[in-house]
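F.,

This is the one I mentioned.
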């Protein structure tokens, strides 16, 4: 980090072990290029939820903050550790007294950054208004830091775009949509101040259906009968991420860049030591 730029890397939804391995390998090669790392981890443990073991493993790999979404509660052990998991953020627009924190403020050298997480309301389970909560909270946060990042976990593209413009008008620095697991190609700087992308994509098996096995997905969609989704496994993994650069003094975005890579985790360039680590 230099005096006028803060470089942030955000990984789209991590899907299962393949996604965890993809992120851990990517960080082993690139961690030093960034000042702060964020990843959405609501699907990190077998596709649904986040175990404490996986939380600790991802943080130890170099991630500074994990965001989430509607699936964060799927592993019931979340309630046993979320209050102590200072680097895990759940959506802020859950009702008051919901376990965990909806935002966090982190030190990055001499600066601070606020990471916020919200759920959408279109085609999603009922939830409190993200519009009102952000409007009521942003002034308080701005007294602490001008650097504000939002992970908006939502289904509808129009809702993401509209909430993104709303966030830009309130002075947010960077905004990434999650949930669909499909990276969009609309990265831009909104109002000359906020870096925006509708969906950051996902990290997981290349051969699946947004991270899940093709066969189980096909059966569910062609029969319309209940079918348990299974996480896809593959040595070829997708890494979808977004690189944001912001001015840490003004909180305004400087640039945004999509990352979309396919990595073969059996590649000979991966050392035996790293193989042991990512397959743990």
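My design for it:
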């Amino acid at each position: 980090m230099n005096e006028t730029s803060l470089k942030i890397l955000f990984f789209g939804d991590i899907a299962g072990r393949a996604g965890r391995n993809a992120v851990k390998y990517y960080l082993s090669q690139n961690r030093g290029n960034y000042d702060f790392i964020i990843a959405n981890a609501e699907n990190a443990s077998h596709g649904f939820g986040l175990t404490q073991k996986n939380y600790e493993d991802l943080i130890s790999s170099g991630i500074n903050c994990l965001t989430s979404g509607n699936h964060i509660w799927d592993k019931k052990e979340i309630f046993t550790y979320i209050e102590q998991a200072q680097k895990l953020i759940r959506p802020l627009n859950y009702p008051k007294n919901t376990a965990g924190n909806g935002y966090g403020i982190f030190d990055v050298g001499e600066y601070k950054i606020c990471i916020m997480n919200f759920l959408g309301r279109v085609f999603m389970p009922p939830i409190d208004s993200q519009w009102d909560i952000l409007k009521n909270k942003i002034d308080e946060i701005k007294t602490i830091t001008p650097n504000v990042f939002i992970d908006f976990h939502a289904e509808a593209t129009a809702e993401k775009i509209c909430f993104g413009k709303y966030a830009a008008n309130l002075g947010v620095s960077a905004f990434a949509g999650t949930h669909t697991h499909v990276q969009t190609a609309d990265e831009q700087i909104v109002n000359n101040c906020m870096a925006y992308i509708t969906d950051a994509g996902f990290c997981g098996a290349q051969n699946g259906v947004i991270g899940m096995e093709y066969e189980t997905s096909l059966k569910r969609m062609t029969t319309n009968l209940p079918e348990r989704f299974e996480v896809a496994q593959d040595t070829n993994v997708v890494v979808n991420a977004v690189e944001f650069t912001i001015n840490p003094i003004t909180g305004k975005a400087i640039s945004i860049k999509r990352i979309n890579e396919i990595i073969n985790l059996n590649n000979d360039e991966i050392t035996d030591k790293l193989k042991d680590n990512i397959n743990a």
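The two ends are 32 Å apart (CA to CA).

Talk soon.
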